Amino acid sequence: MNHSKIFLLVLVISAMISCNRTTISEVEKTVAAAAPATKTKAKNVILMVGDGMGLGQLTAGMIANGNKTNFDKFTAIGLHKNSAFNDLITDSAAGATAFACGVKTYNGAIGVNSDTVAVKTILEEAEEMGMKTGLVATSTIVHATPASFIAHDPKRKNYEAIALDFMDVDIDFFVGGGSKYFNQRSDEKDLYAQLRTRGYQLEDYFSAELEDITIDPNKKFAYLTAIDSPLPQAQGRNYLMEATQKAIEHLSHNSPNGFFLMVEGSQIDWGGHANKADYIISEMIEFDNVVGYVADWTKKDQNTLLVVTADHETGGFAIQKGSTQDSLVTAFTSDYHTGVMIPVFAMGPFSEQFIGIYENTKIYNKMRTAYGWKDE
Ligand code: MG
Ligand code: ZN
């Protein structure tokens, strides 16, 4: 018997003893007021993905940042097993499809199962249920991680086809690179025009800086940050915080049914592929700062489940020597992804479900449970 049940029993017994003076409904009211507020569901879910972010990356970012990390705001922490359908080592397409669709698929698959059949994503389902939806990435918006939440394609490199899939979903907010897949296409379709016809306020790096744009709260919003891949943070890219803040403001405005938002720190992975510790660390510190902002917002909101994780580790990145004062000697065992388990950090309603060790596909199931949706 847990404490609240014992408390209830004591109240009921004392009510019976005091007889006639306290009605049962008054006892119920007392119990309801005294019980901790347990949410029956999460109104909103924010999933943050640090692509290629293993514990080495997270720790190196922490040490380089004065031995401080915003990940210490979380108390519900678990690990996910991230193998792909037919490969121990996953890529970002199969990894993100596991989060978005709850299926193990082959490397390179975007929102399709191991038979290349399209599987509805959590973002599409949220959209169908009248919720608001958003994607923010520091890669192109058609790159594997964001693409897997909105597109269905047997091949991750089919960027123009993936951009076309954005025309089939009424996503309310997206920010990322890759404008050329929308307005310099080999089929000469003008997806900028199509988005505007479909009610978007559409802007890009060419028209204005994101921070200078006033977003119309009553329109859908899209902003393309670069022709192709955005720059590394260390070379001047600086929009992840701004885009995430604007996304949360836009999606939480006038949204009685709640929202789903995926935010990706895309280039931690690229630092791993390049075997460059400095690249990993600068991307990691940026992502950590944004995690801190979103965690603080989530704590205040109280209706949002926040989940922060990675799809896989990249580089076999290790910390070999150094000090917590910032000097680090690091090493790599690979220029590709590795198969180690990946940490998962959660807070808000239903965050306790993320404690433990489970397959990456369970992150999809756990987010659905938090929304109060029946599991399939
Ligand atoms: Mg990615
Ligand atoms: Zn990668």
Give an overview in words:
The protein has 376 residues and is an alpha/beta fold. It folds into 2 domains: 1-36; 39-371, 3-Layer(aba) Sandwich (Alkaline Phosphatase, subunit A). It contains 13 helices and 14 strands. It has helices at residues 3-18, 24-34, 55-64, 92-101, 122-128, 144-147, 159-165, 180-183, 191-197, 240-252, 268-273, 277-301, 361-371; strands spanning 44-50, 76-81, 132-140, 173-177, 200-204, 220-224, 259-265, 304-309, 313-314, 318-322, 328-331, 337-338, 342-347, 356-359. β10 and β11 (328-331) form a beta hairpin. The longest helix has 25 residues, at 277-301.
Q: Which features would summarize this protein structure in a list?
A:
2 domains; 13 helices; 10-stranded mixed beta sheet; binds zinc ion; globular; Alkaline Phosphatase, subunit A; alpha/beta; 376 residues; binds magnesium ion; two-stranded antiparallel ribbon
Question: Could you give a short description of this structure?
Answer:
With 376 residues, this protein is an alpha/beta fold. The chain has helices spanning 3-18, 24-34, 55-64, 92-101, 122-128, 144-147, 159-165, 180-183, 191-197, 240-252, 268-273, 277-301, 361-371; strands at residues 44-50, 76-81, 132-140, 173-177, 200-204, 220-224, 259-265, 304-309, 313-314, 318-322, 328-331, 337-338, 342-347, 356-359. It has two domains: 1-36; 39-371, Alkaline Phosphatase, subunit A, CATH 3.40.720.
